[in-house]
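Case study.
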Amino acid sequence: MNHPSISKVQAEIEAVFGAVVGELGDTFSVDDLLSFIRQYRRRPLYFRVLRTPPEWDNLEWMGACFAAADQDVLIVCAELGDLLFYSTLGHESAHLLSNHVKTLNSTVAQFLRHPDELVPHLHLSEYDKPQDEQEFVAEELGILFTECLMRHACLMPDVPREFYEND
Amino acid sequence: MSIFAFGRLISLLAVALTMTYIGYRTYLMRDDPSPSRSIIIMMFVGAAFEILPCINAYQEALELPMPKWQNVLGYPMFSSAILLGYFTLKQFLNNQVSPLRDILGHRIFLITAALIGIEATILSLRQGSTSFTDGVYFEPSWSYTAACSIYYLIFVGVGSLIVGLFWKDLKRYKANLAYRVRRLVSMLGLIVVVAATLLGEVNLALSFLLDDPKLRFTLNWIVQDVGKTLACLLLLIGFGVPQSIFIKAVRPLERYLEHRHYAKLYYLCQKISPLLPRLSVPQHDQNIWRVLIRLAEMRDYLGTNSPYTAVLPPRAEADYLFGLINNGARFDKLGPYKPSLSPKDYYEFLQHNLRVADHLKQLEARHRPLSSSMIEDHLAQT
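After joint prediction, the assembly is written out as follows.
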């Protein structure tokens, strides 16, 4: 990270996380988070768990997000374990919620027809450590979201939950 | 009040409290259209079926007279409670509502219901009242033996099936510690039920073979008073304690485990990090999620450079990592392989890493080079 202003970054993280937790609480599902992103950004969201397209074979990616002309897009690589799936989803959600994505001219359908053209516009989740402020924010928010998503994934099944937690 | 009456009063109170709690839950769900409501109602009925047998046992300990109908109904009702309990818990734990038709047509239901029917018929045909719970009373007649034997057999058989349900469920949902402890307590309660009733069956056989009233009294006391009271208390804790209390009770253990897990996982991160120059050790801030995520990334990265096609057992993986570390291996780009070093499930992933860390520590300790002071100590000793 290139010496970001700590207080500014911290404030951004707190603002976004506060907005999510204020609406969804500290335990939420993937669907809850995606619905919140739609509502927060006031745009439709295209979410897909995707096998690596052949055109991306040399690309190091676990997830990606961008704002197409018609809707936001969040894709997560298939074949990730639970933890990487949630952390990647959290990381990419953080980019969308922090408005780190620029709106592009092409639609989702156009991009999906030519995945290679998409690469320069993507916010990719890679293995490297964060290199700039935006990545740092997404990384930190991604960890916070992972905790909330995992907490939901580890909840009791529905029937016992309704019985024990329905006050 | 005698110690027997006191134990039986405790059982009665535990059952009454469980029934009240489940009744309260049923009331809260009165407007809930979800299908799980029917499971909760079944659970309430099951708990209600236990009240009369507990009252009977308590009255018996106080040597109070009991009408015949109360005596005849008590034991079959208790047997019905465990049968109802099996189907309720099966649905409850499997998170799946079964239609009543399926339950009534189930083999276990039909067999147990037939046995309960035989038990009730024998008891109603007998002259006077019958007791399986009184420590001194024993009658070497076929009707007494058959009814008592069936009564215990139902508890042993259906109870074992319920323990099996809990065991399967414990293996399935591992990550939620509070829920895990709750089910363990409930399962322990049922194990006590099965063990106690099995002892009751043995006691019946011994009464025939030895007819030693002292031995019969002692065994009966273990079965009816110690076993039943303990089981009722455990089941009360398992089913009747609100989840918020359970979570609070388990929190210190959870914190302790998290602290220990963090230390092990961070150690593993530190060990793997030199192999992967692009992935640094995360910030040391006690955030277990940060370490877990980085470890998952490291394993995926390393996995693309490892030719293994399946997750290695922890010991083998520790050996593999130890070899790489000692050989000074470095992987600065993704390899050609499909990563398969990590279990996909979160809980399995956590446990796997903890075991690998343990084995790696052992390997390090075994192969640690001797320091000069250790060599001096060794020489002095020899």
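Observations recorded in class. Chain A has seven helices and four strands. The mean pLDDT of chain A is 84. We will return to this complex in the next lecture.
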